[in-house]
Specification:
Blueprint (H helix, E strand, L loop, with lengths): L5 H12 L3 H11 L12 H14 L2 H20 L38 H9 L3 H5 L6 E2 L6 E4 L14 E4 L5 H4 L12 H11 L8 H14 L3 H8 L15 H8 L4
Antiparallel strand pairs: 1-2, 2-3
Helix pairs in contact: 1-2, 2-4, 5-9
């Protein structure tokens, strides 16, 4: 066990925890500089070099995120007794900070090039993540119900970000003509290539891409006066409100609210 490589540890933990495709991708990016080192070789000096070298090519925020994933991997491995001793990554991100930037919010007209793209239209009117819609199975697009809806659930081809993301989202009337043209991606990270192409075509900065449409959707819900509890249900967020623990947001409630969006 002492000779296990870091990349072998990540593979073992993937089998134990079954992370989402995006999370596993971040694991791989984080371990890349040390992937072929043995676990016993991850010394304080190696951690220091990881940080110093990382700052030469990455932003502070990206480096902090990657160290965070390494910290998490080591904590998981310690729980399963795959690693003994202290976590060498515990304080490796000390002093690093995220400098978050809200993406620019553009109106519908700005995206004229994509007005007939099924992915774009569904993202615009649902606020879902690109992987949720790009990887959805045909049987989870329910059109023969009184209120047509997307049934976002964990699937064999991709898991959702978390259990709160399991939800039903009404299909906005503007989406319905495009739903039959949705393509089920078999890629490990469904929609990722579409998202990057979208970013390049629209001249968006790295990091915005398809997820910027989710931010835009949230802003539009705020402008339309959709209450936070319903917003959380549509987006698949865990609501921080204590009141939200009592009763539930129904599909008909979401449908009524979502149709406020034009």
């Amino acid at each position: 066990m002492a000779q296990m490589k870091v990349h072998e540890l990540a593979t073992k933990l993937e089998k134990l925890y079954k992370p989402t495709a995006s999370t596993y991708s971040y694991w791989q990016k984080s371990i890349k500089p040390i992937a072929h080192l043995s676990l016993q070789d991850i010394s304080d000096e190696v951690v220091l070099d990881y940080r110093v070298n990382g700052l030469e090519t990455l932003s502070e925020g990206t480096l902090k995120t990657r160290i965070g994933y390494l910290k998490g991997l080591w904590n998981k491995a310690r729980k399963w007794k795959l690693i003994k001793g202290e976590n060498p990554w515990q304080y490796a991100d000390d002093g690093l900070s995220h400098r978050r930037r809200d993406p620019e919010l553009y109106p519908w007209e700005h995206y004229a090039y994509y007005h007939d793209d099924p992915y774009f239209v569904c993202l615009w009117y649902t606020g879902c993540r690109i992987g949720e819609i790009a990887g959805i199975y045909k049987e989870n697009v329910v059109l023969d119900a009184p209120i047509p809806y997307f049934n976002f659930v964990h699937q064999d081809n991709r898991r959702l970000k978390n259990d709160e993301s399991v939800r039903k989202v009404p299909i906005h009337p503007a989406c319905r003509p495009y739903v039959s043209d949705l393509y089920l991606s078999k890629a490990r990270s469904p929609g990722r290539s579409w998202s990057e192409t979208f970013r390049q075509n629209m001249g968006l900065p790295p990091g915005d891409a398809a997820h910027s449409l989710r931010h835009s959707f949230t802003s539009r819900m705020n402008e339309a006066g959709i209450i936070e509890r319903v917003q959380d249900a549509i987006l698949g967020h865990a609501s921080p409100s204590i009141t939200s623990r009592y009763g539930r947001v129904t599909l008909s409630m979401m449908d009524k609210e979502i149709q406020k969006l034009q």
